[in-house]
Amino acid sequence: MDAEDTSKDIANLLEKVQVKLPSDLIIEQISHLISSGALKPGQRLPSERVLEERFGVGRAHVRQALHRLELSGIVRTLPQSGTVVEKIGVQTIEWLIRNILGKEELTTEMLTEVRGLLEVSSARLAAERASPKQLAELRQAYDQLVTKTHAGDDPMETDFLFHMRLADATNNVLLRSLINLMRPDVMRFAQEHRTAKDGRPKEALVEHLAILEAVETRRPDDAAAAMRHHIRMSREQYQDR
């Protein structure tokens, strides 16, 4: 075997370097505090300003980490009270955090199937059960999505907020929790596999509006159909590795 062949064999043993995001590192530190017992369920986290100073990163990274933790049901932000760890078991919290930072391989088909099972039902039930307050919150989430999209900002997190408000409107705690548990995988998959398709954010706005209007006007079948169409169109912006 010559030197060139040996070099190729060695190269095949190398793996891509995984560069961690600041928000991932923040989540890992919070996980360690929970595992060690220093941070307990129900306990309040330091303010964003203090976290920014202690972590030595910008406020945006702190907010992203806290937002991901909240979307996953690990922490909750309370008015005038700050951010607190949810009152669930430590082992459950650790599992949720591993899920956020996990590296399990997902495919477009997996994501589409699970979203189809959960979110189509979510849209249907929301159209049947949403309270006036929940409808107002859903409309507000949509308006925020419009603002982000038209400003040219990444609308992904605001998009997810719309879906969580929709899940809230089902008034089914278990369904909401299942959708909540799925969010870290959806976010990670979207970040890693999303392709830049021109015009897709504005197309998605139209799809979200169709879902919203069907829910607001109490049309469960139309809401389910609009969500099914949205999921089908969304899968086209992903590419499997």
Automatic annotation (TrEMBL):
<keyword id="KW-0805">Transcription regulation</keyword>
<dbReference type="Pfam" id="PF00392">
    <property type="entry name" value="GntR"/>
</dbReference>
<protein>
    <submittedName>
        <fullName>Transcriptional regulator</fullName>
    </submittedName>
</protein>
<keyword id="KW-0804">Transcription</keyword>
<dbReference type="Pfam" id="PF07729">
    <property type="entry name" value="FCD"/>
</dbReference>
<dbReference type="InterPro" id="IPR000524">
    <property type="entry name" value="Tscrpt_reg_HTH_GntR"/>
</dbReference>
<dbReference type="GO" id="GO:0003700">
    <property type="term" value="F:DNA-binding transcription factor activity"/>
</dbReference>
<dbReference type="InterPro" id="IPR036388">
    <property type="entry name" value="WH-like_DNA-bd_sf"/>
</dbReference>
<keyword id="KW-0238">DNA-binding</keyword>
<dbReference type="InterPro" id="IPR011711">
    <property type="entry name" value="GntR_C"/>
</dbReference>
<dbReference type="InterPro" id="IPR036390">
    <property type="entry name" value="WH_DNA-bd_sf"/>
</dbReference>
<dbReference type="InterPro" id="IPR008920">
    <property type="entry name" value="TF_FadR/GntR_C"/>
</dbReference>
<dbReference type="GO" id="GO:0003677">
    <property type="term" value="F:DNA binding"/>
</dbReference>
<feature type="domain" description="HTH gntR-type">
    <location>
        <begin position="20"/>
        <end position="88"/>
    </location>
</feature>
